[in-house]
Task: structure prediction
Amino acid sequence: MKKIQALFTAIAACCVTLCSIQSFSQCCNVVTSNGVSVISSNAICVSTVYASTTACLDGDSDGIMDSDDKCPTVKGSLENGGCPDTDGDKVIDKDDKCPNLVGLVTMSGCPDGDNDGITDIEDKCPTIRGTKAFAGCADTDGDAIADPDDKCPSVKGLPTYQGCPDTDSDGIQDSEDACPSIAGPVALGGCPDKDSDGVVDARDKCPDVAGLPEDKGCPKIAEEIVRKAAKSAKGVYFETAKDVIKKESLDDIEILVSILKDDATLICNIEGHTDNVGKPDKNLVLSQKRADACKNYMIKQGIDSSRLSATGFGDTVPVVDNKTKDGKSKNRRVEFKLAY
Result:
């Protein structure tokens, strides 16, 4: 019995000696509940009987034996098997792609501030939820152009115009197109010009007939046509104080009807005038009725009503003085004003 006690005493002394060699004053291999061996200064080093001279080594001085330390060269915690977790995000540094930033376990320790499944270090828009297709950025209008690169992020557009639309597909983006919903040439700011006269349709009083800019896009009416219309009007007479056209005047009105039929783009305003005999208000009514009578006759002859207008002026626009009989006769008249 004494021999056995002496043997254990010698072994214990050996253990202390071995540990001293490794710069430890005392050591003992104690197995914790999780199976990790730690160094204890309060136990006899009996378990080292079966260990080599390195059994008690703790190279990183973290209290965990190297043989059980998953990170034997870097000081760590018992909780992490001897490995460090610098940012405290439950992902040990060696497995943490962002060891100095608190992150998510699902993101290998990296943060994802906008929760879009893309780590902040890989996310071009880390504060705005996006998609992988756009490196973490959003595409609000769904035009396949990421919002940071989209000049019109809330309106679906084209790559050609950095995400801005060209609704009428005329090669001019809407923001620079004076007529964004109707195709037109660049030279006219994107507005159409059906008759190609250089006057955009919106300002062209004759959009279907090529004309002159100074005439608001309308062509000049041939002098011969103007003379015929004027001559036609001079031959129109009415029954006294009535709006009934005299039969002998119908041929003169037919001249104007022919002019309008020959050029379907012409329009005509029929003006009625009286002399100053009688009350002005009655003269105004009479002049309107006479102008209407001419208009209605032309409509019956096949001229579309949209091309005709009738206006009565009464005695307000005399062509000569009303002091003479001849003057009064000249002031009682109709005029045919042609235009495009």
